[in-house]
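Hi R.,

As promised on Friday, here is the backbone we talked about, encoded as structure tokens. Could you run it through your design pipeline when you get a chance and send me back a sequence?
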């Protein structure tokens, strides 16, 4: 009887030991598989950033699709809840997706730009959202934390012209530039000039989507740190969005935010809709332009 019990214990111990070994082996194999899969994905992830391409990779992408994407970034206040580089971060992340699906190469983001609302008071410069012109409600003129992007129109004009000249020299035929509102307005106003001088087709993502059309709410970056831009950031860089920094009381409007209340109307799902709408729209526009060349 004791022998049988002893043997049963041995049997139980034996089975238990190998069961643990079996599950340990399965766990190790599963982890190894995951690591291998992630490594393979990283190794085979399509490279679209200009600065990361080798000359051979650059030639291949340029030949396949001679489109350059220029994120018009700033270092500018975008509420207490969004990063200061929101303009360029949104457009760059969108352009990375667009380049992966349509081809082309994404340039490094700019961090300077013009702004028509620049004011000098007692020798101190205020620009953009410092002036509280387009926010609701308006607020006293003040220097908003972190804004450090403004350059005169003449400087921005010189910078963009040199960029376009170099892109044409490198072999690009189309340039899509988007991001900071006043920078985009400059691009739209000078499209014909770029075509005549550099033989480039230059465009923003606004296209025919004006601020009066039914698709306005789906336009990329159609407000300032409000529901549209906040949703886009929630979708492409959720790690950088800090909604808890905004006033909990929705009767208290966030400083220097213009558009629909992000606390009520912003969501990752809304950001995904914006991105998907713009991807389909811009893919069609780019393909049409390439086929007409």
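Update: got your reply. Pasting your designed sequence below so it's all in one thread:
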């Amino acid at each position: 009887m004791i022998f049988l019990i002893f043997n049963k214990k041995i049997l139980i111990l034996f089975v238990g030991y190998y069961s643990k070994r079996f599950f340990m082996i399965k766990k190790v194999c599963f982890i190894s598989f995951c690591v291998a899969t992630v490594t393979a994905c990283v190794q085979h992830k399509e490279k679209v950033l200009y600065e990361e391409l080798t000359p051979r990779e650059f030639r291949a992408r340029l030949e396949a699709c001679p489109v350059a994407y220029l994120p018009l970034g700033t270092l500018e206040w975008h509420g207490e809840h969004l990063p200061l580089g929101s303009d360029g971060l949104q457009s760059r992340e969108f352009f990375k997706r667009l380049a992966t699906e349509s081809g082309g190469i994404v340039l490094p983001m700019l961090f300077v730009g013009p702004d028509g609302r620049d004011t000098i008071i007692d020798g101190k410069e205020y620009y953009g959202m410092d002036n509280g012109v387009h926010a609701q409600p308006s607020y006293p003129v003040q220097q908003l934390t972190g804004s450090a992007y403004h350059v005169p129109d003449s400087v921005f004009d010189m910078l963009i012209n040199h960029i376009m000249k170099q892109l044409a020299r490198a072999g690009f035929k189309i340039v899509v530039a988007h991001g900071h509102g006043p920078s985009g307005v400059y691009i739209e106003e000078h499209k014909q000039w770029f075509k005549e001088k550099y033989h480039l087709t230059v465009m923003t993502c606004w296209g025919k989507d004006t601020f009066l059309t039914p698709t306005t709410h789906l336009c990329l970056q159609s407000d300032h740190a409000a529901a549209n831009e906040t949703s886009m950031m929630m979708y492409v860089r959720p790690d950088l969005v800090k909604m808890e920094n905004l006033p909990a009381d929705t009767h208290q409007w966030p400083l220097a935010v213009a558009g629909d209340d992000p606390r009520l109307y912003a969501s990752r799902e809304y950001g995904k809709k914006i991105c998907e709408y713009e991807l389909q729209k811009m893919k069609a526009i780019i393909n049409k332009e390439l086929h007409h060349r």
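One thing I noticed while checking it: The two ends are 92 Å apart (CA to CA).

Thanks again,
M.
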